[in-house]
Amino acid sequence: MLNVDEIWDEASEIFGHCSEKKLLRWITDSVELLANKGEIDALVASVDLCVTDRCITLPREVETPLAVNIGGHPALGRDELFSYHLNGPGDFTTTCDWSWTNVGSFPTYRDLVCPGKLVAFLDSPEDEGKELRVFGFDNAARPLRTRRGTGWEDGYLVPTIYGYPLPDSSAPTVARITSVRKAVTVANMRLSSLDGSSQTGTLLGIYEHDETEPRYRRIRLNHSAEWARLMFRRRSLELRSRYDRIFLHSRPALLLAMHALKSYRQTDIAAGVQFEAQATRLLSERESVLTPPVSNPVQVDNRAASLGHDTLE
Protein backbone atom coordinates (compact mmCIF):
# COMPACT_ATOMS: atom_id res chain seq x y z
CA MET A 1 0.00 0.00 0.00
CA LEU A 2 0.99 3.62 -0.50
CA ASN A 3 0.79 6.71 1.62
CA VAL A 4 0.16 10.27 0.52
CA ASP A 5 3.73 11.42 1.11
CA GLU A 6 5.04 8.97 -1.50
CA ILE A 7 3.13 10.70 -4.32
CA TRP A 8 3.04 14.24 -2.92
CA ASP A 9 5.69 15.74 -5.22
CA GLU A 10 4.16 14.22 -8.36
CA ALA A 11 0.68 15.36 -7.32
CA SER A 12 1.98 18.92 -6.88
CA GLU A 13 3.43 18.85 -10.40
CA ILE A 14 0.27 17.41 -11.95
CA PHE A 15 -2.30 19.63 -10.24
CA GLY A 16 -0.09 22.65 -9.78
CA HIS A 17 1.12 24.15 -6.53
CA CYS A 18 -1.99 24.91 -4.48
CA SER A 19 -3.04 24.76 -0.85
CA GLU A 20 -2.44 21.51 1.01
CA LYS A 21 -6.17 21.09 1.66
CA LYS A 22 -7.03 21.42 -2.02
CA LEU A 23 -4.25 19.07 -3.10
CA LEU A 24 -5.41 16.42 -0.62
CA ARG A 25 -8.93 16.74 -2.03
CA TRP A 26 -7.65 16.10 -5.58
CA ILE A 27 -5.65 13.08 -4.42
CA THR A 28 -8.74 11.76 -2.61
CA ASP A 29 -10.77 12.08 -5.82
CA SER A 30 -8.04 10.24 -7.75
CA VAL A 31 -8.06 7.37 -5.26
CA GLU A 32 -11.85 7.17 -5.46
CA LEU A 33 -11.67 7.09 -9.28
CA LEU A 34 -9.52 3.97 -9.14
CA ALA A 35 -11.22 2.36 -6.15
CA ASN A 36 -14.52 2.30 -8.04
CA LYS A 37 -13.03 0.06 -10.73
CA GLY A 38 -13.71 -3.19 -8.90
CA GLU A 39 -12.95 -5.39 -5.91
CA ILE A 40 -9.37 -4.34 -5.36
CA ASP A 41 -7.43 -6.63 -3.05
CA ALA A 42 -6.22 -3.84 -0.79
CA LEU A 43 -9.80 -2.67 -0.27
CA VAL A 44 -11.12 -6.09 0.78
CA ALA A 45 -10.79 -7.14 4.43
CA SER A 46 -12.53 -9.21 7.09
CA VAL A 47 -13.48 -8.60 10.70
CA ASP A 48 -15.08 -10.54 13.56
CA LEU A 49 -17.87 -8.67 15.35
CA CYS A 50 -20.00 -9.25 18.43
CA VAL A 51 -23.76 -9.51 17.90
CA THR A 52 -26.36 -7.75 20.06
CA ASP A 53 -30.02 -8.70 19.65
CA ARG A 54 -29.30 -10.18 16.19
CA CYS A 55 -28.10 -6.74 15.01
CA ILE A 56 -24.64 -5.47 14.06
CA THR A 57 -23.60 -1.88 13.42
CA LEU A 58 -20.55 -2.06 11.20
CA PRO A 59 -17.37 0.01 11.72
CA ARG A 60 -16.92 3.19 9.69
CA GLU A 61 -14.26 1.50 7.53
CA VAL A 62 -16.94 -0.77 6.04
CA GLU A 63 -18.41 0.52 2.80
CA THR A 64 -20.05 -2.62 1.41
CA PRO A 65 -20.60 -6.01 3.09
CA LEU A 66 -19.55 -8.76 0.67
CA ALA A 67 -20.26 -11.88 2.72
CA VAL A 68 -21.31 -12.76 6.26
CA ASN A 69 -20.61 -15.88 8.31
CA ILE A 70 -22.98 -16.12 11.30
CA GLY A 71 -21.31 -17.97 14.16
CA GLY A 72 -19.54 -20.26 11.70
CA HIS A 73 -22.51 -20.69 9.33
CA PRO A 74 -22.36 -19.20 5.79
CA ALA A 75 -25.32 -16.90 5.24
CA LEU A 76 -27.34 -15.53 2.34
CA GLY A 77 -27.49 -11.73 2.02
CA ARG A 78 -30.66 -9.74 1.34
CA ASP A 79 -31.38 -6.05 0.86
CA GLU A 80 -33.85 -3.66 2.51
CA LEU A 81 -36.61 -4.45 0.00
CA PHE A 82 -36.74 -8.16 0.82
CA SER A 83 -39.32 -7.65 3.58
CA TYR A 84 -41.71 -6.43 0.84
CA HIS A 85 -41.18 -9.50 -1.38
CA LEU A 86 -44.40 -11.45 -1.97
CA ASN A 87 -42.54 -14.76 -1.64
CA GLY A 88 -40.51 -13.68 1.37
CA PRO A 89 -41.11 -14.01 5.12
CA GLY A 90 -42.15 -10.37 5.63
CA ASP A 91 -41.64 -8.96 9.12
CA PHE A 92 -43.47 -11.52 11.24
CA THR A 93 -41.91 -14.88 10.35
CA THR A 94 -38.41 -16.29 10.62
CA THR A 95 -36.59 -18.01 7.78
CA CYS A 96 -35.13 -21.44 8.37
CA ASP A 97 -31.88 -20.76 6.54
CA TRP A 98 -29.01 -18.57 7.69
CA SER A 99 -29.37 -15.08 6.25
CA TRP A 100 -28.63 -11.42 6.91
CA THR A 101 -30.38 -8.25 5.78
CA ASN A 102 -28.88 -4.87 5.04
CA VAL A 103 -31.11 -2.41 6.92
CA GLY A 104 -29.43 0.86 5.90
CA SER A 105 -27.09 3.48 7.36
CA PHE A 106 -27.39 5.10 10.79
CA PRO A 107 -25.54 7.94 12.57
CA THR A 108 -25.16 6.01 15.85
CA TYR A 109 -23.94 2.59 16.93
CA ARG A 110 -27.36 1.74 18.34
CA ASP A 111 -30.80 3.30 18.72
CA LEU A 112 -31.92 5.01 21.89
CA VAL A 113 -33.23 2.51 24.44
CA CYS A 114 -35.77 5.12 25.58
CA PRO A 115 -36.06 8.92 25.27
CA GLY A 116 -33.35 10.78 27.16
CA LYS A 117 -31.06 13.80 27.25
CA LEU A 118 -27.77 13.78 25.32
CA VAL A 119 -24.26 14.41 26.68
CA ALA A 120 -20.79 14.44 25.11
CA PHE A 121 -17.55 13.05 26.54
CA LEU A 122 -14.34 14.65 25.24
CA ASP A 123 -10.97 12.89 25.15
CA SER A 124 -9.03 16.16 24.79
CA PRO A 125 -9.52 19.62 26.38
CA GLU A 126 -8.56 21.16 23.02
CA ASP A 127 -11.94 20.06 21.63
CA GLU A 128 -13.96 22.03 24.16
CA GLY A 129 -16.64 24.11 22.49
CA LYS A 130 -16.41 22.35 19.11
CA GLU A 131 -19.62 21.51 17.30
CA LEU A 132 -21.52 18.29 17.96
CA ARG A 133 -25.00 18.76 16.50
CA VAL A 134 -27.72 16.11 16.59
CA PHE A 135 -30.73 16.09 14.28
CA GLY A 136 -33.89 14.17 15.04
CA PHE A 137 -37.05 14.40 17.13
CA ASP A 138 -37.89 14.87 20.81
CA ASN A 139 -40.34 12.83 22.88
CA ALA A 140 -43.24 14.93 21.53
CA ALA A 141 -42.27 14.14 17.90
CA ARG A 142 -41.04 17.70 17.33
CA PRO A 143 -37.85 18.32 15.28
CA LEU A 144 -34.80 19.13 17.39
CA ARG A 145 -33.84 22.83 17.23
CA THR A 146 -31.40 25.11 19.07
CA ARG A 147 -31.88 28.78 19.90
CA ARG A 148 -29.06 30.97 18.61
CA GLY A 149 -29.41 34.63 19.59
CA THR A 150 -32.84 35.79 18.49
CA GLY A 151 -33.35 32.95 16.04
CA TRP A 152 -33.41 29.17 15.85
CA GLU A 153 -31.21 26.61 14.09
CA ASP A 154 -32.05 23.05 13.04
CA GLY A 155 -30.62 20.36 15.28
CA TYR A 156 -29.67 20.26 18.95
CA LEU A 157 -26.18 21.54 19.80
CA VAL A 158 -24.84 19.13 22.43
CA PRO A 159 -22.64 20.92 25.04
CA THR A 160 -18.97 19.96 24.59
CA ILE A 161 -17.27 20.75 27.90
CA TYR A 162 -14.16 18.77 28.83
CA GLY A 163 -14.60 16.86 32.09
CA TYR A 164 -18.26 17.85 32.57
CA PRO A 165 -20.56 15.63 30.47
CA LEU A 166 -23.80 17.24 31.62
CA PRO A 167 -26.85 18.38 29.60
CA ASP A 168 -27.86 22.03 29.80
CA SER A 169 -30.98 23.06 31.73
CA SER A 170 -33.05 23.52 28.57
CA ALA A 171 -31.89 20.29 26.89
CA PRO A 172 -34.68 18.44 25.05
CA THR A 173 -35.55 14.82 25.70
CA VAL A 174 -34.47 13.11 22.48
CA ALA A 175 -36.51 10.19 21.19
CA ARG A 176 -34.96 9.57 17.74
CA ILE A 177 -31.72 10.57 16.04
CA THR A 178 -31.64 10.88 12.25
CA SER A 179 -28.18 12.40 11.67
CA VAL A 180 -25.15 13.83 13.46
CA ARG A 181 -22.80 16.62 12.42
CA LYS A 182 -19.44 17.09 14.11
CA ALA A 183 -16.45 19.39 13.71
CA VAL A 184 -12.97 18.02 12.97
CA THR A 185 -11.43 17.43 16.41
CA VAL A 186 -8.09 16.64 18.00
CA ALA A 187 -9.31 13.44 19.68
CA ASN A 188 -12.45 11.29 19.86
CA MET A 189 -15.86 12.45 21.03
CA ARG A 190 -18.38 10.10 22.63
CA LEU A 191 -22.11 10.69 22.40
CA SER A 192 -24.26 9.18 25.16
CA SER A 193 -27.76 9.52 26.52
CA LEU A 194 -28.89 9.93 30.12
CA ASP A 195 -32.08 7.92 29.89
CA GLY A 196 -32.36 5.99 33.15
CA SER A 197 -31.56 2.67 31.46
CA SER A 198 -28.36 2.42 33.53
CA GLN A 199 -26.15 4.57 35.73
CA THR A 200 -24.15 5.75 32.73
CA GLY A 201 -26.95 5.82 30.17
CA THR A 202 -26.56 4.47 26.63
CA LEU A 203 -23.38 4.88 24.59
CA LEU A 204 -24.55 5.94 21.14
CA GLY A 205 -21.31 6.55 19.29
CA ILE A 206 -17.55 7.08 19.54
CA TYR A 207 -16.69 9.54 16.79
CA GLU A 208 -13.10 9.72 15.59
CA HIS A 209 -11.27 12.99 15.09
CA ASP A 210 -11.87 13.20 11.32
CA GLU A 211 -15.53 12.15 11.29
CA THR A 212 -17.80 15.05 10.41
CA GLU A 213 -21.02 13.32 9.28
CA PRO A 214 -20.87 9.81 10.78
CA ARG A 215 -22.85 7.08 9.04
CA TYR A 216 -22.60 3.38 9.89
CA ARG A 217 -24.12 0.54 7.93
CA ARG A 218 -26.26 -1.81 9.98
CA ILE A 219 -27.20 -5.44 9.23
CA ARG A 220 -29.71 -7.71 10.94
CA LEU A 221 -29.29 -11.49 11.31
CA ASN A 222 -32.17 -13.93 11.13
CA HIS A 223 -30.60 -16.18 13.81
CA SER A 224 -29.23 -15.35 17.23
CA ALA A 225 -25.46 -15.66 17.52
CA GLU A 226 -22.66 -14.39 19.71
CA TRP A 227 -20.41 -13.38 16.83
CA ALA A 228 -20.31 -13.01 13.07
CA ARG A 229 -17.47 -12.78 10.57
CA LEU A 230 -17.76 -10.18 7.85
CA MET A 231 -15.92 -9.92 4.56
CA PHE A 232 -16.24 -6.35 3.36
CA ARG A 233 -15.08 -3.69 0.94
CA ARG A 234 -13.16 -0.97 2.72
CA ARG A 235 -14.33 2.63 2.50
CA SER A 236 -12.01 5.11 0.76
CA LEU A 237 -11.82 7.72 3.50
CA GLU A 238 -11.02 11.34 2.76
CA LEU A 239 -7.28 12.00 2.93
CA ARG A 240 -6.49 14.68 5.50
CA SER A 241 -2.70 14.54 5.91
CA ARG A 242 0.47 13.56 4.04
CA TYR A 243 0.80 10.48 6.25
CA ASP A 244 -2.58 8.89 5.54
CA ARG A 245 -2.61 5.47 3.90
CA ILE A 246 -3.85 4.84 0.37
CA PHE A 247 -5.32 1.36 -0.12
CA LEU A 248 -3.99 0.82 -3.64
CA HIS A 249 -1.06 -1.26 -4.84
CA SER A 250 -0.16 0.56 -8.06
CA ARG A 251 1.61 3.90 -7.85
CA PRO A 252 1.77 4.39 -11.67
CA ALA A 253 -1.98 3.79 -11.91
CA LEU A 254 -2.66 6.44 -9.28
CA LEU A 255 -0.48 8.99 -11.11
CA LEU A 256 -2.38 8.35 -14.35
CA ALA A 257 -5.67 8.75 -12.46
CA MET A 258 -4.45 12.20 -11.36
CA HIS A 259 -3.73 13.12 -14.98
CA ALA A 260 -7.25 11.94 -15.88
CA LEU A 261 -8.83 14.22 -13.27
CA LYS A 262 -6.71 17.15 -14.40
CA SER A 263 -7.87 16.59 -17.99
CA TYR A 264 -11.49 16.42 -16.86
CA ARG A 265 -11.02 19.66 -14.94
CA GLN A 266 -9.72 21.29 -18.14
CA THR A 267 -12.75 19.85 -20.04
CA ASP A 268 -10.44 17.73 -22.18
CA ILE A 269 -12.71 14.70 -21.98
CA ALA A 270 -10.91 12.65 -24.64
CA ALA A 271 -7.56 12.90 -22.89
CA GLY A 272 -9.20 12.18 -19.53
CA VAL A 273 -10.81 9.00 -20.86
CA GLN A 274 -7.47 7.81 -22.26
CA PHE A 275 -5.64 8.47 -18.99
CA GLU A 276 -8.41 6.74 -17.03
CA ALA A 277 -8.34 3.69 -19.31
CA GLN A 278 -4.58 3.33 -18.93
CA ALA A 279 -4.83 3.79 -15.15
CA THR A 280 -7.47 1.05 -15.01
CA ARG A 281 -5.31 -1.27 -17.14
CA LEU A 282 -2.27 -0.85 -14.88
CA LEU A 283 -4.36 -1.37 -11.76
CA SER A 284 -6.02 -4.48 -13.21
CA GLU A 285 -2.65 -5.95 -14.18
CA ARG A 286 -1.27 -5.34 -10.71
CA GLU A 287 -4.34 -6.89 -9.08
CA SER A 288 -4.18 -9.95 -11.33
CA VAL A 289 -0.61 -10.59 -10.14
CA LEU A 290 -1.59 -10.30 -6.47
CA THR A 291 -4.80 -12.38 -6.68
CA PRO A 292 -4.28 -16.13 -6.14
CA PRO A 293 -5.58 -18.48 -8.90
CA VAL A 294 -8.61 -19.74 -7.00
CA SER A 295 -12.28 -20.09 -7.93
CA ASN A 296 -15.50 -19.38 -6.06
CA PRO A 297 -18.14 -22.01 -6.91
CA VAL A 298 -21.64 -20.92 -7.87
CA GLN A 299 -23.93 -20.83 -4.81
CA VAL A 300 -27.34 -22.50 -4.97
CA ASP A 301 -30.08 -21.94 -2.39
CA ASN A 302 -31.93 -25.27 -2.27
CA ARG A 303 -34.84 -23.80 -0.32
CA ALA A 304 -35.61 -21.14 -2.94
CA ALA A 305 -37.17 -23.72 -5.26
CA SER A 306 -39.95 -24.62 -2.85
CA LEU A 307 -42.24 -21.68 -2.09
CA GLY A 308 -43.47 -21.50 1.48
CA HIS A 309 -41.02 -24.11 2.84
CA ASP A 310 -38.42 -21.63 4.02
CA THR A 311 -40.42 -19.92 6.75
CA LEU A 312 -41.55 -20.74 10.24
CA GLU A 313 -44.84 -19.46 11.58
Polypeptide structure, described:
The chain has helices at 8-15, 20-35, 251-265, 269-290, and strands spanning 2-3, 44-50, 55-57, 62-70, 73-74, 76-78, 94-95, 99-106, 117-122, 132-138, 145-148, 151-154, 156-157, 174-182, 189-194, 202-207, 216-221, 227-234, 245-246, 311-312. It has 3 domains: 2-40 and 248-290, no CATH class; 42-106 and 218-234, no CATH class; 117-214, no CATH class. It is built from 4 helices and 20 strands. The strands form 7 sheets. Strands 2-18-4-5 form a 4-stranded antiparallel beta sheet, with no helix packed on it. The chain has a 4-stranded mixed beta sheet with strand order 3-17-8-6, with no helix packed on it. It is of the alpha+beta class. The termini are far apart. α1 (8-15) runs parallel beside α3 (251-265), α2 crosses α3 and α3 (251-265) packs antiparallel against α4 (269-290). 19% of the residues lie in helices and 31% in strands. It is globular and about 60 Å long.
Q: Any chance you could write out the topology, listing elements then pairs?
A:
Blueprint: E1 2-3, H1 8-15, H2 20-35, E2 44-50, E3 55-57, E4 62-70, E5 73-74, E6 76-78, E7 94-95, E8 99-106, E9 117-122, E10 132-138, E11 145-148, E12 151-154, E13 156-157, E14 174-182, E15 189-194, E16 202-207, E17 216-221, E18 227-234, E19 245-246, H3 251-265, H4 269-290, E20 311-312
Parallel strand pairs: 6-8
Antiparallel strand pairs: 1-19, 2-18, 3-17, 4-5, 4-18, 7-20, 8-17, 9-15, 10-13, 10-14, 11-12, 15-16
